[in-house]
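Table 4 source record.
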Amino acid sequence: MVVVGAQTGSASAEVQREAGATSVAQTGAQRAAAIQEAQTGADATAQAIGLSGQEKLVARDVVKDADGTVHTRYERTYRGLPVLGGDLVVHRKKNGARSATRATEARISLPTTEATAPAALAGNARKVVWAATGKPVLAWETVTRGTRADGTPSERHTVTDAASGRELHSYEAIETGVGNTMYSGQVTLGTAPGYSLTDTARGGHKTYDLAGGTGNGTGTLFTNPTDTWGNGSASNRETAAADAHYGAAMTWDFYKNELGRNGIRGDGVAAYSRVHYGNAYVNAFWSDSCFCMTYGDGTGNTKPLTALDVAGHEMSHGLTASTAGLRYSGESGGLNEATSDILGTAVEFYANNSSDTGDYLIGEEIDIRGNGTPLRYMDKPSRDGSSADYWSKSVGRLDVHYSSGPANHFFYLLSEGSGAKTVNGVAYDSPTYDGSTVAGIGRQKAYKVWYKALTTYMTSSTSYSGARAATLSAAQDLYGSGSTEYAAVAAAWKAVNVTK
């Protein structure tokens, strides 16, 4: 049995610690100024953390905690070339103490930056340094765009060794997910004067009608002679738009009110939504290139994939891309998908919508399999027939939607604990790898730990071991290393076989 450590300090001290380690919301102008300030001092920072004179830092994001700690996320270049897998986060305390979390500890030193092997697609390639795995080498990165068999756009990135031509890595940049449809009931939508689906209170989020198109454009902005949208039926084209618009609003509100984040990128600018993609397209996807979410209409064009956990899931792919940048393959890809499941689930609970109550089931309403079962289960992921309950050396070889299992399981255990229980009318029975009993700390604390770990400690190459370290660091910042919460994070990871 895992014994959760005794809590130290008073409740007031706990609240003060959490408040101090919580990120401060910034306006777009404040964030831009912070990034510019970080970039101005980037050369000094590079020298301070021991980079060579041939390496430069490019500031990408700045997170400021209420206690004065600043977490600055950087990309790295070597002799002017982007370093893939060279990203890092520098943590600077108010007293000036500095530390860094790096995607790789490998030293970058190349004998030449001249390629001897051609790029796979010479007209669509850039020369880079590949440092994400093994010894850093000169490489080519190419991007191939097309359409997959199910109609989903494809943006395939391939990295090849610039000396041998050998493929080093590849991944799909278009990230997909599925969820509920038409279950939000009657809701209030943010619209603009003249009645368009433009949410002026939430970064100008807009919802567009693709009208069956599959191109890269936005389609047509939804407008109306009145401020009433849809009728709850898929036969009315505005219904899917209303669901998508509402889901985006709830996600925005969750990020802002619960996590102190002003939009996906933290800059106060909204993404946009596109509905009615393709013909009977049974999926939804996020694309960084358009900074947008896209939804199909489902089987027979009667089940648009546009409800709360879908919106939360897809927008959270954008959050991950804007912060840790978890690569969409291997263990980091599983953590990427789990992040979207975790925060999509959190959005569903946050909305507190009586028509679609919060649960730890993913895609429970869409009925993709035709037998009424969800796509994924957070309390016991293997119930879907493909996902892993626990970490093993083979987890990274699974599809990222299934290698997400141990992280989803961790989040459920951290939130609710192990064993049988019922939440919002849904029965769960979560096991543990070692038969231990885990006591949950509550969903809100659990997603705050995950979010802080994602935004201030995870990098593009974070593995399950790295996720454990990141969440423990986050729990220490928020609640203290001797806290019940810190011990619960360690216990929940041990329960899914991640012990170091």
